[in-house]
Amino acid sequence: MNASTKRLKILVAGVGGQGALTAARFLGDAAMAVNLPVIVGQLHGMSQRGGAVECSVIIGPGHSSHIGDGEADVVMGLEPLEAKRSLAKMSKHTKCVVNLGKIVPFSLAMRGESYPELEPILAYIRTVTPHLYTVDGPALVRQTGISRTLNVAMLGAVAGLDMLPFGHEVLWQAIEKKIPPRFLEVNRRAFDLGVSSVSQ
Amino acid sequence: MSKKTLDPLLVNVAGHSECLLGNEAIVRGALEAGVAFASGYPGTPSSEVTDSFARIADQAGIIFEYSINEKIAVEMAFAASLAGARSIVAMKHLGLMYAGDPLSTIPYVGPVAGLVIVSAGDPSCRTSPNEQDQRWLGPMLHIPFLDPDSPAEAYAMTRFAFELSEKSRLPVILRPTTRVCHSRAVVQYGKLQEPRIGGFKKDPSRFVPIPVNARRLRSDLKDRVEIARDLIAHSEFIRVAGEGKTAILASGAPAGTTADLLTDLELNGKLKFITVGGVYPLPEDRIVEALAGVDRLLVVEELSSFLEDAVRSLCARHSLAIEELGKRTDHLREEFEYEPAQIRRAIYQGLELGPEPPPALEFETVPPRPPSLCPGCPHRASQYALRTVFGEDSLYFNDIGCYTLGYGPPLHTADALLCMGAGFTLAAGVARTTGQRTVGIMGDSTFFHSGMPPLLNAVKENVNMVAVILDNHVTGMTGFQESPTVNLVGDQFMREVSIAKVAEALGVRQVETVDPYDLPASLAVLKRAHEASGVSVVVFERTCPVHFARETHATYQQAVYAIDPSRCQTCAREDCGLRCSQEICTGFERHMAQARSLESGELPSNRPKEAPCATQCPLGLCIQGYTGHIAAGEYRAAFEQIMSRLPLPESVCRVCHHPCEQVCVRADIDEPVAINELKRFVIDWAHRNEQTYQPARDEMHGKKVAVVGAGPSGLAAAHDLILRGYQVSLYDAAEHPGGLLRYGIPDYRLPKEALARDIDRILAMGVEFIGGRRLGRDLHPEQLLKEGFDSVYLAVGAASGVALRLENSEAADAPVMIDALDYLNQVNSGKEMAKAHRVVVIGGGNAALDAARTARRLGAEQVIIAYRRRRQEMPAIEEEIKAAEAEGIEIQTQLQPQALCARQLQCLRTEAGDTDSSGRSRPVPIAGSELTLACDQIIAAIGQFPAADLLAEPGIEREEGGMFIVDAETGQTSMNNVFAGGDLVPGERTVTDAIAFGQRAAWGIDLSLRGQEAADGHRIPPRPGSAEPAGRPDVQRSDTMPRVSPAELTGPNRSEGFDEVVSVLTEAQARAEASRCMVCGLCGNCRTCLDLFGCPAFYVKDDQICIEPELCNGCGVCADLCPNGAIYKVSS
Hints:
A: alpha/beta; 6-stranded mixed sheet; B: Rossmann fold; 7-stranded mixed sheet; 40 helices; about 20% strand; elongated
């Protein structure tokens, strides 16, 4: 948490349809549950149509949902290129969790190009922050069985960083409230796998 | 309230907190103010206001509607206010301008119960075509204006706004910007208020603003504005914090950002921070009071200097000496939402806080990921079909909705865009101005919103336009709001008010409705609309699959499709080395895809991979390649495609026997494509436009080849050998090169100038021609090798015909006999010929036809072709036979010449016997069937054979019939470094086959002299074995179109001279004819799905196009248009 402002700034970056908005909202609900002021920015615009989506969660006293350049304390990158796209918001103090599952931008397909190699993307992010944590999303999805658990697994990973001003269970309870009962178990598994993926 | 889960917005506990979106906070504020009526039209970023009302209206006991448009929404809310109901109406900034008419009079009359207009602003144009600063509407229309800085303030302002509205008797505009609308923050609740409706109490002198009333209402507006000013001044929305000589005045969303920055910079309390949430009427006294003792002021507001100017005016009027900083002093920019860094810079610079923080770092760019139409979106299918039929040159006018995404690649269906409903108006305006038939595009909601009046207007003026309505049963872009009059019945969405009927009622005569997933039907409907005139309406109707899945709980994914890599981007002729390396343009791809879409029958994925025409072409030309380029108008590319394989284009495009056309699949539908005429069109285009093309050429490496015989085979070999870096000497017995092309084929088929262009081009490449040297007399292969040639190609033609022996040839007055080749040679050499009146030509091949037609041109009154077999067995090109008949030449079949008598030829009739080695029936003379043909000249054209001495070369093995034995692939004879072709070897006797053999020999020579790698580095001629005829696909097509034929000379101009008979297709004819090609073979360079369709489920991995199964929704449209038939359904 940024010492001077006592605010924790979390950026959620992903692709429309990955659940970035929902994930940001869960973080906001969890903060509220422990009576912390929170503001969540979800200025998705037209990007829900498969475009890039960026949400902010700012926990602590404040008015605006803006995260300025270099100000993110945590970046939750639901997709490698989207994590790279949000580099401007990162600093050497930022903890960045990246899902390794790739979604090919259609702009590449139109040019006949493949998705770039993963390792150089991660190496480039490391030039800004050494605190890079990767989550093998596709493997997690294989383990849990449904792809829609990805954002919950990533929330688990963010919780696993132990940066949040509330415990894992507070976040889980916020998630639990909004998930249909039949999907609870699979999401809990995803959440736990996410937690353990960063706490090694 | 029902037992179902209580909506968080309806929790009636004071002090309860929820984390609400700014838009939801507004709804909660309204509910706490006892709102009884809500209306609106969806528009980002305002939509969650109306969406929330839609969700809770019943539970909350309030009246709600999504109005058809914003003007109606505002009028409805105003009416409700007159009826004594506190009312709220929500829309985005653009919608408020649409409602400008009622809006400008409402303040005069004033609401009865509180009227709050929520009009969300969109700085940075995130989802809008402009970012207007609506605050100017306040002073312009006398409307109090509130600008919240956060969701919590939006909540509080909404409650306050109703009170403000009622006390001032003015409507109030609440203007949250995207940052506030779409941020979620903690809101602490008060108590809900029951909605109340007071009822409509008549007061015509107030409610009817006829001029006399309007003037009175105008007079008291000023007082009402002052009431509002006072209320705002004493509200919680004007705040002053801190002390100091420097001050910041901020308003709206940037006030929140500024407050956070002051905390971050530890400036809280060290300067005066004035927040102004009520921006009109500005509480001037409060501001003046707050500015006391301030000497420098930074004004932070987005979009324009509204407050900055107001404060400057205020300071002037109150003689306050304050240095005011902001947009006017370039400390802040006018446009777009402010990032914290911009405000921070302004604070540092303006308030002189010391060195600024360093600028942001620059990072590598990341591939863009703009929004796109979802996989399976019906708007993609419909706009793809639209572009296919209306083409690149039509003008498309798009509108506001998901389909606006058709703007970008690959659909490109937006040449202009303005506002809701303008798609039709722009199309009509441009159509009226330019006379072009234009296309207007809009969705169902937009059509009802504001598309009906422009459609009626277009009908009134009989505008030449196509109005396309994309009906997906929902207002998609703004978050799946209802589309007017659509209801879910069972699991189907039904529209009560039919768009087609509305269009008909508006007077449109041609209205058709089609399912965009049905590509062939869509193309057919659009074609009819394209060809019509006046106003046509096409309604594409299919429920948005995302909406459908959400509402019916069906799965969004109906099926999954995949790509067969053995067909995708596969050239079936690659293995024979025949793949071209051409770039194909989108016009070409569109032509291919359209051909595929219009077909039915055998599944595309089961069809043969090779086009029959290509496998039958002796030269291995990719026929669908150049016809595709012609169809697309890309003549240069077609020219290159042809020239990369064809050494004698001018000749071949006139005299080729085109075996391709015999196997053309189009013949099964109507008639074969006029392939050779299309080739001629391109060659002619290149000649007229001085286009030249030479395939890649190797460096000269010093090796020498002698080519003996300068007919088509020798010329082709010489051409290819030069390209392969050989020094070539070309010998011929005649004075000039050309062989059969020059001396055998008459001018009316192949004019000398055209032939000269072929020959000159080859000679200009550096081939040395030496005439007057005859094989067997002046030249011998062994001697040539001794002279230093590394290899020799013997390509001599059969200069004379097989002698015809008839009885009684010495008879008095017997008709003169002449061999067809000698005859043609003499005529083509310009020799004066004795005039014959009645000519009989014996034979059925091309030489016979050439001789007969020549005889006609030389003045013979009667020309008869006598042929032994049946008509269908004549080896001549069918067009030649027809042309001869058209010139009055009589063809008598099943006649066997027997004897000559005075001015007569005696013949026997024949009948068809057993099949012989050529696959034809043997003609068997019928005893006693004698008949005579009167004639004074007989031209014998019964076959050709090289002179015996040509074949008498020692050391070269010959077969029984006397021809040289050669390797069929290379032309290699039994003698080292000696190759042979032309008429010296067995094989087909056509110009095109001779050229093919010449090319093969050039490759064979290269193979023997430089090895496989070098030889295969150039185009490899098709091997004889590769010409297995491909199976013809069993295909039906939804349209037919007759073959287009070029114009021909007629009358005496034709039969009395040697001018070229067949002219070239016109450009329009060529494009139409080329578009008949059904593209039967796979194309290795195709990227149609990516270049034209653009479904985001497609991606490329290691150069292979793939479909992401997670994203595919199984609409199957891609499978219908894939030219290669490579896309197939995996599962459903």
